Amino acid sequence: MRIAVLSGKGGTGKTLVSVNLAAAAPQALYVDCDEEEPNGHLFFRPEKLESTPVNVLIPQFDWNLCNGCRKCIDFCKFNALAYINDLPFLFPEICHSCGGCARVCPQKAIQDVPKGIGSIKRGTSEGVTMLSGIMKPGVVTGVPIIQRLLEMIEGEEGLIVLDSPPGTACTAMETIRGSDYCLLVAEPTLFGMYNLESVCNLAKLFNKPFGIVLNKCTEEENPSETFCRQNGYPILASIPFDHELGLLNSNGGIAVRQLPTYQKLFQELLDTITEKAKRLCA
Amino acid sequence: MKQLLILSGKGGTGKTTISSAFIHLAQAQAYADCDVDAPNLHLINRKTGQPETSDFDGLDKAQINQEKCDQCGDCMEACRFGAISFENNRYEVDYLACEGCSVCIEICPQKAIDPVRSITGELMLYRGQDSIFSTAQLKTGSGNSGKLVAEVKKRMKEAAPEATPLAIIDGSPGIGCPVIASLSGIDTVLIVAEPSLSGISDLERIVKTARNFRVDCAVCINKHDLNPERTQDIKAFCEREEIPCVGKIPFDLEVNRAVNQGLCISQVPCPAQKAIETVYQNVTQLMELTS
What ipTM, to 2 d.p.? Predict the structure, then answer.
């Protein structure tokens, strides 16, 4: 079963929930898809890390063949090519690797060459196998890293937790696409509620079943909770605002391995989701 | 006009709380929300009146004309985004996966693929009596947010009164395309850091990104008392990297209360409000703003 852990807003506790959910199971695969700011490895700290580079293809020009006809420049929808001194000039960070320029070049002067945009790290921590996508700073999009991650876990059985990037744009979409269930983490603020609504819509757009975890709950008003109740969205767990948990988490500790209360909370959350997913399959 | 951008790398560290307070303190004549994926600034720095809205077009997406298609499959093979599949005995474009590169349109021997308009966001510009506010909402499930961010900033700049001393821009989390787009033309980036291992890792990555585009950074530490040890680590990082640390803000439940009432934290007397004022003074000094 694949659970995508999402939130519209950043910093609501996606990594906290993902890491602990994976660690609560006897065996699990934790996949960090937040390739811009991956943090799961700071919790699992695997002793051995295997690293695989991720490349995309970008055009390389053969200046002996290029005659400056500018067909490639006119074709590029992303404006990654400019015409400078009667020749094409590439802005590699804008290139989307569509391969169009090489196809339209009448001189066959363009060749696709690999360019590194990041890597995928693999390691283990007790029963958890961790895969983490890491984008190089300065690179515009890490979508190919997420796609590569999803390819790597194709055919894997058992519990897979996908720790997603924030938001509802292209990178978050990739992780939803590959999931069986969406777990949405929300914080008790108006901001949290507003962004929760967008991510609920995204899960619906992909026709995925979803449930909500309320995080950092206090005794006070919780707009996200009100929103769930009004819309009939299932609240699967409420994590309290707890200094002990906060401190442990900010130091890279895994709550289910150290605090019995949270062992129980995440075990129950995992059971609830498994039960729901089973019912949906039946 | 000088431009201050608030970023954080990690989400949820307090970018919008600080942006909205700065807008209040500076009585900013121009401000913008570049977190087009999850915009929240309008929930606090509300403007009266209706905004000028306009649709934002993304690149045209591909659509296969089934009557002309002879099912050669060249399009599926050429698509680098895996957006074309063969299901139910026909080739189809997955609208959400299509990036609009138009390679399939170019290569289709039957000329059976057409571009169709795709609206990826909505731009909103509020013109108040003494200030303008530019914001946008990316349509759920859309990509290419960098271009929308560039447009939000362009509109703010065009509409801002000429003598505007300081524009304040709320950024998005991460280090990818919307962040990179928001960095262009910026004088100073204020990074809101959080004292946790994750927060520090993300801080290092956003600093690298900003430096890649040669923009000066300053750092403030939010919720510093939640982990004093990690707060020290952030300070040490700033010293090592020669980045000015312009203040630290305590964890304060008043911040959530203010947000939930739609108030800006600088309207509520509390420890966080005082600390943010100091951060603001330090930033304006750093940017050599006289007012």
Answer: 0.90
